[in-house]
Here is the input.
Amino acid sequence: MSLLRNAVVRFFVLSLLLVGLPLLGVWLAGRPLAPYLQFPPVPTVREQAPFSWTAFALLALLPLLFVGLLVAWLQRPVHAAPLATATRARSFPVWGWFGVLLLAASWGLAWSPQGDTAALRPYTFTPLWIGYILVVNALACRQTGRSLLTDRPGCFLALFPLSTLFWWYFEYLNRFVQNWYYDGVGSFGAWAYVAAASVAFSTVLPAVLSTWHWLAALPSLGANRGEFLPVRVRRRKMLAWLMLLVAGGGLAGIGVWPQYLFPLLWLSPLLILVPLQMLAGERTVLSNVRRGDWRPVFVSGIAALICGFFWEMWNYHSLARWEYSIPFVHRFEVFEMPLLGYAGYLPFGLECVVAVDQIARFRAAGLTTLVLPQLRPTEN
Here is the structure.
């Protein structure tokens, strides 16, 4: 009973912080709350601040730091046999070839010119990503004989409804910063759009975590390279409270100064979830960093970046698609996304992992038993 009570209390606190803080910022700014609570959402386009080299240089520091650390880590010698060699590799499974065919057919339909298939083009996102998810799981199976889909099918299927709720939360945050909007969805009614979007959003977590599982099976990323820049913090509770203060202020701040604090949309949820786990004396997705094992960080960031590349590429010529309007850094587009926008996928990968971990805790089960058995975090 105490476990259930703690889970309910944590869920309430998380909901209050993640949903309430941006609204608090809007209220403090003296603006009406109704537009931010409207559902189904009404897409709008906000005129954003012009490009700034200063802002571009400052925001480029995070991805440059990530790339620098990754390159330095990859140059270290492997101290033990790669995890990917622990299981004999197999042939590419038959269901993986079905994924290839589904992906190819959906991609061709999504980018097809106007014609007899035009009515189907707005619905290609979900089958395209189902195809991708099958292919990535098949690659993991070929590498080690194991995959997220085959090892934990129940948990794998549970990721789909969880993913829908997960991405609707980022849609909620986007109401405050209005960094992206959707085009080509005018044929949908309000609730038809919600239904179609919810199905499409359901593929986000399965795609990222399936990619995570495949990457962790690769010798270069799954190998143990020994201690690498351990980050040991003595006053962990003080750090956790500081992170909560900064993240909470950031979430409230996007309701007040959305043009300046929009990057915190991708950082603040992570900086709220992780310190709450730290204060509860639990392990976190960053626990391995304490002993110099950066694999969970690197694999999470790369997995989300790979998915992000394909999200943006397949979106580029699709009929129903999203477009961007980002202040200060909207330049050097790769597909529709400004170059620096890809940096948001790095913390987003960790947020995908933490979100699943948090749900697993509500079920009194650890993340390592759910989807990430290969990179077991150390205990706090």
